[in-house]
Amino acid sequence: VYNFSAGPSMLPLSVLQKAQSELLEYGSSGQSVMEMSHRSSVYDAIIVETEAALRRVLNIPDNYKVGFIQGGASTQFAMVPMNLMTTGEADYLVTGQFSGKAAKEAEKFGTVHVVASSKDKNFTYIPDVDAVEYSPNASYIHICENNTIYGTRFTKLPQVDGIPLVADMSSCILSRPTDVSKYGLIYFGVQKNVAPAGMAVAIVREDLLENARTDLARPAMLDYKTLIDARSMYNTPNCWSIYMMGLVLHWIENEVGGLTEMEKRNNAKAQLLYDYLDQSSFFQNPVNKADRSIMNVTFASPSKELDAKFCQEAAEAGLVNLKGHRSVGGMRASIYNAMPLDGVQALVAFMKEFEARNG
Ligand code: PLP
């Protein structure tokens, strides 16, 4: 089937095949990756190469550190203020449920200024980042760069001198080239574009690690510096997810040809779907055109009954997990990196046929 799930989502077929071929024995180690000591030299080579591949693919500058951290992106909602809110204040742009949750979590650790929100229009647009009044005393500015539930994304980043930008990139990381130097910290749950569920990655500018908040006693497991200084092996890491992440990065490097090519593919898929939606008088996409996500595409038919019928018949045709998030309704097609163009073509063909029968 073509799986349009918002996450966990599809992995590239060749990655799954490679993992399958190595499942029982990795190299000539006599062991599966799932059975290895994370302190062994065989596993060490895996984690070192996964980080190196991430650095190559994203072109991460040397003054940024990488951490493989358990607890998903949701734990990052707390870790960011626990470590980075040095002034006791931070700015949050609330453009959906996840940035709302991040702001709520941060309130437990200091003063949160919600300096912009798109809640007034059910998060169907991204506020103008240049019109926002940022707080002079904010420790950082937090955004969720791609809003998985609503199908919006930032195309312009808040950039304020001396105030680091923190971005949740869970549903857009590795979808296109990213200038890491524009951020103080990037984090993402891996379960959409990167690896099987069960881990998040943080890319942190060194000076923010070194000058972390000192007024708060953090559990060691929630301290970026402790985890990163221990090379993400302060405790037993998610060995399997890290290994799979390495395979996905090699796929992007060697089969796709890097992030510029990845972006071209993703743009082509999204364009196909949006072009169809724009000429359809049956399906509607509610999002402000300039803010449309290339990863999550939301749409709805004229009624809830037809939405339900669409999802059911699409599933029968091998197009699964198209139901929209419960807070939005309608449909959502998540077309992450691993979704081939064929999948989107099949979806558009099915939508046309459904429209002809029910329109
Ligand atoms: N942030 C974004 C943008 C997401 O899409 C999600 C999950 O779907 C999360 C955060 C939460 O991630 P996790 O389930 O890894 O905590």
UniProtKB/TrEMBL annotation:
Residues holding L-glutamate: 39
Cofactor binding, per record: Binds 1 pyridoxal phosphate per subunit.
Residues with PTM N6-(pyridoxal phosphate)lysine: 192
Taxonomy, superkingdom: Bacteria
Sequence ranges assigned to domain Aminotransferase class V in this UniProt record: 1-347
Biological role stated in the UniProt entry: Catalyzes the reversible conversion of 3-phosphohydroxypyruvate to phosphoserine and of 3-hydroxy-2-oxo-4-phosphonooxybutanoate to phosphohydroxythreonine.
Pathway recorded for this protein: Amino-acid biosynthesis; L-serine biosynthesis; L-serine from 3-phospho-D-glycerate: step 2/3
Pfam families listed in its UniProt record: Aminotran_5
PANTHER family noted in UniProt: PHOSPHOSERINE AMINOTRANSFERASE
Name of the protein in its database record: Phosphoserine aminotransferase
Database matches in SUPFAM superfamilies: PLP-dependent transferases (SSF53383)
EC number: 2.6.1.52
A GO molecular-function descriptor: O-phospho-L-serine:2-oxoglutarate aminotransferase activity
Assembly behavior: Homodimer.
Cofactor dependence: pyridoxal 5'-phosphate
Keyword line: Amino-acid biosynthesis, Aminotransferase, Cytoplasm, Pyridoxal phosphate, Serine biosynthesis, Transferase
Location(s), subcellular: Cytoplasm
Residue positions binding pyridoxal 5'-phosphate: 73-74, 98, 148, 168, 191, 235-236
Membership in a protein family: Belongs to the class-V pyridoxal-phosphate-dependent aminotransferase family. SerC subfamily.
Record's catalysed reaction(s): O-phospho-L-serine + 2-oxoglutarate = 3-phosphooxypyruvate + L-glutamate; 4-(phosphooxy)-L-threonine + 2-oxoglutarate = (R)-3-hydroxy-2-oxo-4-phosphooxybutanoate + L-glutamate
